[in-house]
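Hi C.,

You asked whether I'd gotten around to modeling the 104-residue construct. I have! Everything is below, sequence then structure, no commentary in between.
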Amino acid sequence: MTSPGAERPAGVDPSTEARIEALESELSAARRDLWSMRDTLIGTQAETATLKVENRELQVRVGQLSQALAEQNTLNRMIGRIRRDPRIRALGSRVRRGPIQRRR
């Protein structure tokens, strides 16, 4: 196959010449499209890799937040038990009444 713009042998039918030029033009356009699609694919693959890393980072953060929430719930339960303890409740009542007055 000859390259675009190359001279054709004498005696080639003009319609064949036009068809060859049209096919060469289509081939050139197809090559440009192929390179464009290749570049798009490479860009998409890079973006996918970036998103995978970001997704993993988010998964780690969600795990950390879940653990912190579980710890907070544990502490809230412990504080609730302490507050319900009769000794603590009695101590709280004494503190609210103020200092103990000594009898004279």
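If it helps when you're writing up: Residues 14-84 form the longest helix (71 residues).

Thanks,
B.
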